[in-house]
Design brief:
Layout: H1 2-54, H2 57-70, H3 76-98, H4 102-114
């Protein structure tokens, strides 16, 4: 009886120890994946902002829509950067569309369809 109790205790101890290690590995894996995703999103946001500054409003609008669709979540900084870039793209596209720019008109339509989530 003592042997079976010891075996049971040993089994529980081993299972508990293994379970904690697996959780620790998952935590490390997910935390190391977050900065990569975040860095990619930040780079895409910067590229979209550069397109807005260059006047490629239709391309910027398409990229912003793609970023929002593909990013599962934003950091607070990325969310602020996304909103700022989206607002700038929209206001510049409206101004250019009023002057008759067909690419800007397309950008306005893209950004309106995308709308806020």
């Amino acid at each position: 009886m003592i042997k079976s109790g010891s075996a049971l205790a040993l089994g529980v101890f081993l299972l508990t120890g293994c379970h904690k290690n697996l959780e620790g590995e998952r935590t490390e894996t997910s935390s190391s994946a977050t900065p990569i995703s975040s860095a990619a999103t930040s780079g895409e946001l910067k590229a979209a902002a550069n397109l807005v500054q260059a006047g490629a409003l239709d391309e910027a609008a398409a990229r912003l829509i793609k970023i929002r669709a593909s990013a599962s979540s934003f950091t607070p900084h990325e969310a602020a950067q996304f909103r700022e870039t989206m607002a700038t793209a929209y206001s510049r596209a409206l101004e250019a569309a009023q002057k008759g720019d067909p690419k800007a008109q397309a950008a306005v339509q893209l950004l309106r369809v995308a709308g806020p989530k």
